[in-house]
Amino acid sequence: MASNSFGNLFRLTTFGESHGPALGGIIDGCPAGVRIDESMVQKDLERRRPGQSKITTQRKEPDAVVFHSGIFEGVTTGTPIGFTIQNTNQKSKDYSHIQNSYRPSHADFVYDKKYGFRDYRGGGRSSARETVSRVVAGAIAKQYISPIAIKAFVIQVGSLKLEQPYQELELERAEENVVRCPDPGMAEKMISYISEVKKKGDTVGGVIRCVIQNVPVGLGEPVFEKLHANLGAAMLSINAVKGFAYGSGFEGAAMLGSDHNDYFNEDGTTKTNFSGGIQGGISNGMDIYFDVAFKPVATLLQSYESLTNEGKIETNHGKGRHDPCVVPRAVPIVEAMAALVLADHIMMAKTSKI
What we know:
Elements: E1 5-6, E2 11-16, E3 22-28, H1 38-48, E4 65-67, E5 71-72, E6 75-76, E7 81-86, E8 101-102, H2 108-115, H3 131-145, E9 149-157, E10 160-161, H4 184-199, E11 206-213, H5 227-236, E12 241-246, H6 257-260, E13 278-279, E14 282-283, E15 288-294, E16 303-308, E17 313-317, H7 327-349
Helix pairs in contact: 1-3, 1-7, 3-7, 5-7
């Protein structure tokens, strides 16, 4: 049994491989009457697409989405929304050298052992190219959940890290540079560092912060559909993600309860927000914020040791077009998955009371 669907009531099922003819998805459960601006969907795809700058993979894909059902005259009909995105720039021969070997820290080995067969071209279904379908669905979800606003941005690349609280940053400035960091000075340092790493045929990881504002009180379904648990699962389903922390996160473990408690104001808001906008698995009306850690890309454009399907260690060399750092292109993916979770919980909240 494969799991290719996400969500309970607002549900996305995706299909396609990195080097197949197309990728796509079906959004089931989106209510009728939601006005959809398809240009906003395409804009988010532009933010995720390959080949957008010198610090991303140079695979050239237009990533133009075509909707086949569920939207009529710019409005959702309540029926399944089907869509596809064509693959147009595959170079499958770049992967012929790994047909019989497993790259370290990739899904090659485990896919082969699990299924007894694998699509070695670009990783097949395990490729991050699959996330293009998530971005389409997330862009639809964003328009459904408005006025809830979701903004993700890069706060760390390697050891270069922004230390300011997000409230002190001009978050809209993140889209002014190719690394998507809201601090222009730090952005230049990050871009320079990624470029240096790329020249060496190496890769580097990073961290994306996501802030969700205008969230109503009451989203979240304890005990097994807690809002933060679903957000964590959504983020950890993204390729290359190694960690998720919301609110005070791991830093809260070093604090005293008297310092960590978010004391109330008379209107029900809180003086601090170490809870990250979620208490008891339910949104409390404050900003939701969390960090998502991404590992360095596993494909190195240099020599490395790999394991063959005959159990031998051999020296191989990375080929193809790959990101030296995934976080700039992962920003819209993080936003998309957050939007899908919020859309699902908004629909579930409608069943909580009469």
